[in-house]
Every structure is written in structure tokens, then in C-alpha cells.
Amino acid sequence: MARRNKLYEGKAKILYEGPEPGTLVQYFKDDATAFNAEKKDVIDGKGVLNNRLSEYFMSGLNNIGVPTHFIKRLNMREQLIRQVEIIPLEVVVRNVAAGSMSKRLGIEEGTPLPRPIIEFYYKDDKLGDPLVTEEHIVAFGWANQQDLDDMVALAVRVNDFLSGVMLAVGIRLIDFKIEIGRAWEGDFQRLIVADEISPDSCRLWDIESGQKLDKDVFRRDLGSLADAYTEVARRLGVLPSNVTHATKPHLIN
């Protein structure tokens, strides 16, 4: 595909002008970042894996009636998506205490929560993406109450889908983050899942061993991030079982 005008570059992805009005091309980079980009590295093949995994999850959601921005994968690193107005919030669903929740509330990491807990974080790297309440969100106009109700409903459905998919391949879904955008259909607006769903945005632990298969491997120096992501892709059938991290970079378009 011919390169189009770059519209935005983030820590892990680049957005380009799409081939038709209302579309974008989303390119997955190999960059890995943590702690608000204080820790950085380039992991060969990471973008390929996240593109394929996000395609897998977004397609699955589309198939069960959960609307997403995903249209189709274009090649090993790019996918065609709908252009949406991103709500400036990260929606985090937690099934097990881990990460910032454990630190913030003094709950031992790995403690199952009594029910899934949904949190909202204001998207602002300079502020460190602070935790905010529904009161903040409505008061500052980031979303109205109906939007919030719809966002919670979407998050619950995504959690049910991802939890089941992961459980089937021996992986425990600890928590995950999604972003939600406003899509216009004529004069009507609907909220849809946007950005990506990948091990970059989820905590995934092996059910039997507790081995981490997500970005915590990079955050905490627990081994090879590419190997962890490859294992998730292998279990889900996204990559052939004989593909290894050493061979993946040769497949990049």
C-alpha cells in the first residue's frame, strides 16, 4: 500500500489518512514503552504480533455484535479502521487485583475481585493518565451520562468475550484497557471500541503457572516480550505453531 499522509503518531502506532473518507490506516510499530515512555525499547516483530492479535479480538467482537472501528487487516503491520472521535478516557476493566490497583489500595497482586471493577482514566500523558470519577467526566464534558452508561455496557461485553476466549486457551484475563470513540452514521452517533486490543493493553497470566504474557514482562524485566506475545498468538491460533520469534521479522511487509 502506498504511504499516505501521517495524521498522528503515538507510542505504539501511527495513523495515516485512509483510502476513503471516514477511514484511517493504523500502523503498528515495534516500539515498546512503559512508565509513561520513561522506559523504551524496540522489539522486533512486536508490531506484527499486535496487528494480528488486535485483528483477532476486534473481528471476534464485531462478529458477536459489539461494534468496533476495525474494518480489515491490510498487511502484516497495517489495518483499515473507521475514523472516530476518541473520547479522552481509558476504560479499564479489572477482574483480579494487579498493577496500580494493588499499589493504590494495598491489595495483594493476584487477589480475585468480588466482581469486575470498571475504572476511568483521563488520557493525558503529561498528567500521567490520572484516575477520574464519573462525576469528573460529566462535569468536565468529556462524556455525558448516557455515554458513560454505554461505555460501561461495552466494557462489560468486551470483558465477557475476552475472558472466555482466554480461558479456553489456558490464560487468565487479569485486566485490560480499551478506548472508545464516537462514530457518526448520518445524523446519529454511536459509541464503538477503538484503538487496539492486544497484550500491550491487557494483563494475561498463564492459569497454571501464573507466568505473565503481557507488557509486564517488559515493565518488570521478566524475559522476552516477543516470546510472551508469540505464546499468546500461538495459543489463539493466530500464528502457526512452528513460527518462532526468530522467524517473524522475515514475514514483515
Question: Can you walk me through this structure?
Answer:
This protein is globular. The protein is built from six helices and 13 strands. A hairpin with an 8-residue loop joins strand 9 and strand 10. With 253 residues, the protein is α+β, with helices and mostly antiparallel strands. Strands 8, 9, 10, 11, 12 and 13 form a six-stranded antiparallel β-sheet that branches. The chain folds into two domains: 100 residues, Phosphorylase Kinase, domain 1 (2-Layer Sandwich); 122 residues, D-amino Acid Aminotransferase, Chain A, domain 1 (2-Layer Sandwich). It catalyses: 5-amino-1-(5-phospho-D-ribosyl)imidazole-4-carboxylate + L-aspartate + ATP = (2S)-2-[5-amino-1-(5-phospho-beta-D-ribosyl)imidazole-4-carboxamido]succinate + ADP + phosphate + 2 H(+). InterPro entries: SAICAR_synt/ADE2_N, SAICAR_synt_PurC, SAICAR_synth, SAICAR_synthetase, SAICAR_synthetase_CS. Belongs to the SAICAR synthetase family. Pathway: Purine metabolism; IMP biosynthesis via de novo pathway; 5-amino-1-(5-phospho-D-ribosyl)imidazole-4-carboxamide from 5-amino-1-(5-phospho-D-ribosyl)imidazole-4-carboxylate: step 1/2.
